[in-house]
Amino acid sequence: MKKFVIAVSAFCISITLSAQDLITKVPSTASAVVSIKGKNVLQLMSLEEFSNSKFGSFLEKELMDESKGKLETLEDLGLDYNNTFHYFFEMNDGVYTNCFLIPLKDGKAFTGLLRNSELKKTKTEGNLSYIQNYRGDEVTMWNEDVLMFVVSSDNKVHEESYSYYKDYQSEVAVEAVVEEAADATATEEEDYYSSDAYKKEQEEREKKRLEREEKRLARTKEFSQEVLDKAKKIIAGTYANKSILANKSYLKSLGKGKEEASVWINDFATIYEQAIPSYMLGNSFNAYNFMNIDKLYGGLSLMAKLNFNEEQVVIKTEYTMNDEMAALYKPMYNGKINKSFTKYINEDNMLGYMSLNLNTEGVLKAYPNLASSLFDTGSGETLSESVALGAKVFSLLIDEEGASKILRGDMFLALTNLTEKQVTYTDYEYDEDFNYKEVEKTKTETIPDFMFLFTSEEQEIFNRLVRIGLKEKQLEANNGVYQLIDLPKSTPFNIYVMYKDNTVFLGSSLKDMSAIQSGRFVSKLSSEHKKNITKNASSVFVNGKKIIAEIPVESFPRELRNKVDFLTSNTEDIKFNFQKIKGNSMKGEVIWEIPSEGHKNSFVYFINMIDAMMD
Amino acid sequence: MIKKAFIYFSLFVCISLCTSCFEILEEIKLNNDGSGTIMVTLNMSKSKTKLASLMLLDSINGYKIPSEDEIDESFKDVLYHLEKTPGISNIKKTKDFDNYIFTISCDFKNVDNVNAIFKELIKKQNKNNYTNFTTTNLSYNPSENVFNRHFRYDNAIKKSFNTLKSEDRKVFDDASYTCIYRFKDKVKSVSNVDAKIAPNKEAVFLKVDALSLILGEKNVENKIELTK
Description:
The complex is a heterodimer. Chain A is α+β, with helices and mostly antiparallel strands. Among the domains of chain A are: 2-154 and 243-280, no CATH class; 157-221. Chain A contains 22 helices and 20 strands. Chain A has a 20-stranded antiparallel β-sheet, sandwiched between helices. Chain B is an alpha+beta fold. Chain B has one domain.
């Protein structure tokens, strides 16, 4: 088991992989595949460089301790770090299979790591060696080129348990009657427990238990053999229906192969259906009885790729849906953002933002259709018919166009500044006899300023609300900016609202909002930010450097306080962008910028960060 | 939804930026017959911006944040418990949710009445968590004219502290525990090296930072000898 941990750790951290790519051993029926390309990673940082890092040295020390000195370096593990590591997950007829495929340079090196007890358990068939655990659900198998861990779980075993539960239910009912009878008199109880009826009941119960046990053992034995056969099939990579390379969706996700790691998840509908144990199917717990999951998740796949570039780490994702869902979602995300939002930001002070570009009219039109299709199980049941009827009525009652005039669907949130605020607190002053009095002292706190904007063409509604607010003394006017005055007394910031140029503003800075209202606001925003905000369905930006620099040192956990300078000079921007739906897919990217100096590339940057935190 | 998310985000920023600390003040005025007055103050006003932000959230770091009403209810429970305790009278309380300062004071006939307030609670704690806290926090021997503030450190304090996330431990960084004891007679000596005797010899002052108390480096145990 220790070897399992060691090798899995190596799998996760050393990030390696392609002489003979092990991908041919992944079956075409896999639901998810994770790959780490060792060759690409080693181009960023050699194994020697990694071993010389603090983190690498720490891992090697751990490996040495774990292996009782047999292992001194990561090289000694015998892994082929230049090849590709894979993990895949497969669900088939209630059996889940998790499989790690680790390329080996030297199969003998791995055998050398095994303890005597493990060597005794090792079985050899030709050039194949394997150890199977006593439950039979885990197999460690290796040859000269590959080390493989297979961990399976069997839902059919749970089904057996469930049948036991049903059995038990009837027995409980019998016992309940018994208890009732027992309450009558103690003599009756004694009579019952020595009666032939009770003895017969006990015999029946024991018989059933033995039958169940026999069945369970038979299934465990059968499953154990199935897992072993499966492992042999995987390592041989000889599939009747070919490897994952015959799967079109997977092939499409491969691209140019420049990434360091990739994740591919296929056909969510099958995953969801298989994830619900078969014994639950058909009863009232199963939501799938009422919903057409296939319509929602059928044909849906997700692909993510991780690239460590020179000056940034990029995770690109692509979410592909079926034609019907794409047609439903497209109008929801097809909003037009109010370009004037970008005029109200000054990036010199900005700590971050989030834009959301929905189309209210599209959402209101799509939701009834989405609900109808989701519940359209084709069964003609009352629920399905009712949802369709409700959706139709909703659609008739709602004026989608009118609603979109109140809230068009484009929104923008910005953390505009951090301001220092003097706050008072109560302390005590003591005289020489320790009599004390309360004294008010002041201290400086850092409070964030924020602004939230959304487009609304209905100024009349805003004006009416303001008139009511003023009359009810909930608002206070200040040259076209209105302060909410009945906030909970503990709210750490003031909140102001105003309307200008088809936009409703809600924010904490009177200075910024007054400047915007009077046309004196000085905006500054790079073309890259403008593009991200206006072209994407959603965009998030975090000014990491500024945030770290502005947080008071005493707000950091004690152990990080002496690393604040390092963090400030080594933290850059983080961005998330999610594009509008094109075709059937929605693409997204997460970009983590790294400092332009001090690190060879972004992978080395992360290792350096880990090293710095280990000090 | 998005507005709520953003306000929550701003509050989280507030919580991360603002400092937090608190002070507990325990003041006892002891008469020669062993009766007296005790007042306990929890002053969190230095953390009020942070607390105000916290109070707007339902929970943070997995801890539920009580509302003002819930704190009020707990206060009522404490007062009810005090009222039921024999020898306790003249119970007074103050709550200041603007500055987060809470005070409870009462008169006692004998220091044992004060011990009785927490006795069951401490017994329960010791039984459930295998701790060894003393159930006698105060004692007064009129014939010897000696007042004792008892305290028995238990490693469970450090263990509980170590299970906290580093972010949560920060709360104790600048926190402190202050004890002030006033007597009618003059103070002859004190056993706690950190305690100070007032020039008029009628009061003893001891301020211990919370971290030292938690880690067992300092404590509030004190034997105060008074002139006969």
